[in-house]
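Replying to the earlier thread about multi-chain prediction with a worked example.

Input:
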Amino acid sequence: MTTVRVTCCQLSPRIGDLAGNVERSAAAVRTAVARGADVVVLPELVTSGYVFESVDEVTGLAITSAHAVFERWSSAAAQSRGSGSVVIGGFCERGDAGVLYNSAAVVDASGVRAVYRKTHLWDREKLWFRAGDTLPPVVDTVVGRIGVAICYDLEFPELTRHLALAGADLVAVPTNWPLVARPAGERPPEVVIAMAAARINRMAVACCDRAGTERGQEWTSASTIVSVEGWPVATSSPDQMATADLDLAAGRDKRLTDLADAFGDRRVDLYASTVGRVDG
Amino acid sequence: MTTVRVTCCQLSPRIGDLAGNVERSAAAVRTAVARGADVVVLPELVTSGYVFESVDEVTGLAITSAHAVFERWSSAAAQSRGSGSVVIGGFCERGDAGVLYNSAAVVDASGVRAVYRKTHLWDREKLWFRAGDTLPPVVDTVVGRIGVAICYDLEFPELTRHLALAGADLVAVPTNWPLVARPAGERPPEVVIAMAAARINRMAVACCDRAGTERGQEWTSASTIVSVEGWPVATSSPDQMATADLDLAAGRDKRLTDLADAFGDRRVDLYASTVGRVDG
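Result:
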């Protein structure tokens, strides 16, 4: 594994326009792959849009992992001039018995490699979706081991630590960040959290936000790629791509000095009794 | 509980000068309390210095929690014009059978309230100290519930989450941050980690770094106080105090929206099987 080129495609999905969102996302993946991307990250719910008004609307936009959009992403990934590209994108999923999930797919030239159902639902997502019942996977791909998280998931260090311990070189984070207040000159708080998760775990993090406004909701539009040392190495303006070449291999060595190790120094003997604790 | 004034006294302890370090630390606490500090945080190992050359040197500087320095801090805390002040400072501890620890004491007008022995030893600290066998306490004081962490501890989200779940309003972090490389314009990585821990847990964090150089070791000298929203509200230059007035009560409400809650949204059902996992 050498340098891996990661691109976040900060699109503006249109609520309700499934066919158009499929086209726009596939076109973005094609462009990114043509520019050498080994990993392409798309926003959360890129097929459907985000600000739903009813369960019926969500149901009408939900798709299964057999939908044609994944074949489109897969075909685009197959055009890689390298060893193959990998696409991670969010979608509105219809599962068994019509249950709805806020999901992300990991797709490569061979097709859908994994589907993850968001385990930490944000705010009104709880009105539409069922939370997933499994922590996210780490998928071993030709370009490295890719973990997945969706938006609010990132704010739970239990989840990012899980991905790191499961061997993730990179966490791909499809996201829709609602714009929140922050002091002048500060990065969005979600980016600070991504930086800390990367630094602590020596694991790159690529957050693909969305652009535009939707039914009055303003988005942060701050896609950011963070290195294994925890520094932002690419950010994007609205409707732009953010691209960075990452040395993911460096993150596999968790040593910080000859006598310090980010994983080896964990006090698993002490955590066991407390971290699973149920609080009110 | 109303606004709480927190002061970090970024001192320059002198290696080997126990008597002088006692005087300097007590004087700093007196000054901070005179300026209205409800909580005073001192650096890690403020009684001894940090860059040791041998176990014998550490042994010669180690003190018990009955040492006069704590009476000095306690007397200074008793001068508070408010309801009473609390001091958290690092010291080189001699425990039972002469075992050495990198510890921190929580002291108020009544004396030593708690001693915490650092559980995550950094680098060469492993040559001198035994790691503590208990996660840090949260001490219920007249000014709020104060959790303790020492330097490298902060880089383990298991520990900061533990403190948050145990009810900490504020984490006091005596620290000695060795200067590390960072991109121009960036904060020290430890500060980014403190910001994320604060934001994720809605819990203030006050890191008291040290100043000066010691046996060739340069320190970051970047004491920082972070609000419950995760923003730095005070930082200090070398040999200065950093002071902030914090609304700690705000952090007791973990709701982020009517339908989102930083603690309530944790998926304890999923973490239990993974976070205690032992990895190589």
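The domain at 4-254+262-271 of chain B is CATH 3.60.110.10 (Nitrilase/N-carbamoyl-D-aminoacid amidohydrolase).

Feel free to reuse this layout for your own posts.
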